[in-house]
Amino acid sequence: MIIDLPDTTAGAVARTLVDLRDRYGAMALSRVLTLVAHADRAEVEDTIAAAVHASHEHPLRVVVATETDADRERSAGHRDRPHLDAQVRLGGDAGAGDVVVLWAEPWLLEDLASLVMPLLLSDAPVVAWWPGRAPQVPAQASVGQIAALRITDAAAGEHPLATIRDLAAAYVPGDADLTWGRLTLWRAALAGAVDAVATDGVLPDVDDIEVSGSVDSPSVDLLAAWLAIRLGRPAKVRRVPVPHLSGVVVRFADDTELRLERPQSSDLAHLSVPGQPTRPVALAPRDTPDCLAEELRWLEPDGVYGEVLRQGLPRVIPT
Length: 319
Known about the structure:
By secondary structure, this protein is α/β, with parallel strands linked by helices.
């Protein structure tokens, strides 16, 4: 069910949701959080699709705010009040939740928290999500100030490496980035391999670490930074430029190597651990809906992610 609400207010949208709840029963009573996404116009449908996917694991209310089109904004310029168009999606169009789309004038979006306040579920946490361009300091953005969790996606920015460095400089507990979730399978495979190499919990001395990947991929930097933290040494980790995130090599002082390598366009990697036969490891790329759902499982700061940003990234030698 899709209900269009042209030339409306956030309060009127909230009343519509209450009316629909009364008409159709328990709708909106079991939602566990409100996800507020600030998206560019071209990102709206992909943002909704990802949120609907996540709603099957975490029933939620989704509020997607974007700029109204320029023609609409000009035609509304003579009005005595801000112009806002909205749409409510329910049932099969909203997954296990409800979706509100807001098309607002740009200056309204500057104070997004005030705009969406009537639409927030009472006594439920708020999660802010920027599926495209991230604010330089998410915690200081309007909706970021009311959010328990602030999700960005450095890979979606115009300058991904600069974005992840800016996010590291501005990091406060509660910040998260989907790039980190895209590395979950890599980190799990490498953590198990490192444990297998250790003897009585002690690793051999590490001579060198290389991470191979695209020159502009924040995934490569975060994985290298995580390895610097996880292995503790050497002081620096090198990134090797190749077209995609493709491999990790850890060279030990005893002339042995740990290798995790994924061929291009393959969902399988090859893991080589000293003293063991090479074996396949499933490392399919993770998409945005899965990564978003993972972030929503824990509405609390990720200490490891914070440590990687603040202490690991400075140890990555750029290409």
